[in-house]
Amino acid sequence: MPTGPFPAIEPVPVSSRILGIESSCDETAASVVEDGRTILSSTVASQVDLHARYGGVFPEVASRQHVLAIYPVIEQALVQAHLSLHDVDAIAVTRGPGLPGSLVIGMNAAKGLALSSMQPGSGLPLVGINHLEAHLYSTWLGQAGQELPPEPQFPLVALIVSGGHTELVLMSGHLRYQRLGATLDDAAGEAFDKVARLIGLGYPGGPAIEKACEGGDPQAFNFPRAWLENTWNFSFSGLKTAVLREVRKMEGSKYPLPTANLAASFQAAVVEVLVVKTMKAAQIHKAQSILVVGGVSANRALREAVNLRSGCPVHIPPLSLCTDNAAMIAAAGHFRYIAGQRDPLNMDVLPNWPLTEV
Ligand code: KG4
Ligand code: ZN
Question: What is the model's pLDDT at position 10?
């Protein structure tokens, strides 16, 4: 034990139980996570059926649905974890990026709970979380009572592929990010959703295309790959237009649209560009691990291709943690909480918050 005249420092917590809250898009979710890794509970109320009739997320409908779902979802997460609010150390809530009207519902719920838990002189700390950072931390998570997955090692290269984002990120340590590249137009998930609509499949497009690929020939159509040489950027709008062109050519034909071949050829083009660029970035930056996260990481062809081609350990979350959830918010919340982050009650949402500005 040091005995010298050291200045008094605030003790830094190393362990935590965090309540996570997520409402950035069309999932209302809450979760309790211990030490950033062990999921004690995770509740997700999906609005996907509500939005399916519009062929995409309808922001006004989304925020109204969050209002209805948010407190029951939080209550369920606490009940499932056999805990009350007094047993958690902090509330982590998604601050952005996302739909403004959706983000504020989770944010205000978190503030309400922080206030309601206040004893004189103490209250539950609030920690605002970047949604993309949370997707990265989904790879640290495991279920209570089961063996935790191996921890990713730094430096690592992460591919974030969701409905709103496609980014290649270099992570040199906890909470330290450098953006290598990003999509210049559509996000990968957005491309899946748009192409699904073009070829007459339902919403969300990712799972619909994946299913439609069964029995399809990935080489039936030679769709373009935008390599954007000497950059780590992506572009998917040309690919989407190429699919549209093929569909237009076949309009009026007496034969049905070759949906399986179109879906399989489109998926192959997306997966090839994502995988080749990620592998190259990992090699050049001497990555010790590769992460693939976000809704599109649920795609089986992408998961298999990354696992097959990677020269270092690959971390892809289980399917339940690929799409939006609150366990990942709580996991990122832990690493920010133990680093000392505490946000004020007047914290505002940041609908366009880049990962590199956290
Ligand atoms: O991460 P996420 O749940 O929400 C955002 O933060 O955007 O990602 C949703 C996106 C949607 O575009 C959906 O079509 C896509 O992820 N997605 C998939 C699959 N499952 C979901 N894309 C390809 N294959 C899948 N199996
Ligand atoms: Zn997401």
Answer: 56
Q: Which of 25, 40, 53, 216 is nearest to 142 (CA)?
A: 40
List, for residues 138-154, the tens digit of each pLDDT value.
999 999 999 999 999 99
Best mutation site among 44, 192, 198, 353 for ligand 1 pocket (most ligand atoms within 8 Å of CB): 192
Distance, C-alpha 181 to centroid of its chain:
17
Q: Cα of 50 to ligand 1 centre, how many Å? A: 16
User: Which atom belonging to ligand 1 lies closest to the Cα atom of 298?
Assistant: 26
Predicted local confidence at residue 2, as pLDDT: 43
- Exposure string (b/e) for 122-132, b if CB count within 10 Å is 16 or more? eebbbbbbbbb
pLDDT at 355 over 60: yes
d(CA 95, CA 345): 12
Nearest to 34 by CA among 64, 11, 14, 56: 14
